Here is the input.
Amino acid sequence: MLMRRIVLAPAVDRGLICSYAKLLRDSQKRFATLMLMDLAGRQVGEPLLKQVQSANVRLLDIDSLIRADVLRNAAVTVFGEANFLYREVDDEDTDICVPDAAWLDRTFKADGLAWLLLPEEEPIPWNRACFYVFPGNSEAWDVTVPVHAGLMTVARPGEPRACPACDTTYTSKRQDMCQCPSRECGFVARPFASVPEAKSIAPVPLDAFAWGTCPRCRKATAFANHVEQCSRCGQLLRGTSNRHKLELADNSEQVARLVSDLFPG
Here is the structure.
């Protein structure tokens, strides 16, 4: 499992996080979802979580294929090099921590925060807010809009379609899956066969971490809202859970308006 995480210094406010998302959206073509997490106002009993809460630690988890150097360089530009720690780790060979784990102690004046640099093994009751890096969306849609318009393309075999990642127009013999011919891109898109299919919202069971799996392409997606969009195939997803108490923001009406704008009539 790949974890990409930025630990934010207290000097970084929400406005700067929006600016970071906008810079990524405007400067490159990969998609990303940024999940801001903290424990402000939460009832927590474990000493480790109380420590995180009292130190006002905030995390920005990144779900994207954007390269580490691009993510970090944008963070330096917006936050300032001393105001964040960048962490990337997986089950294989990736192990990046810049500047180093001691940054946590220096910044928050607290010991024992290094566990934040590893994937979580138990559910944590984070407050969650999402920012969406969706290049190509209308300029009227800001980085809190959870829908990537380019991923909701409707196309049939032999019809021209625009690549959601780089906007290259091409045709494909397949409807359900097609790869952008641009050597600089190569994004594999999954157009919808009809407008009703593109507008459909699939129910997705969520686990204790508020993650669910897209039934259309099997990609895992983190939920902060009732409705999220799969960043691989564009399927709209509605998170459900009968087993876990999850606090998700109700954005159903917002998504309905956005979809109506994309497919009027």
Observations:
- The chain has a mean pLDDT of 92.
- The longest strand covers residues 32-38.
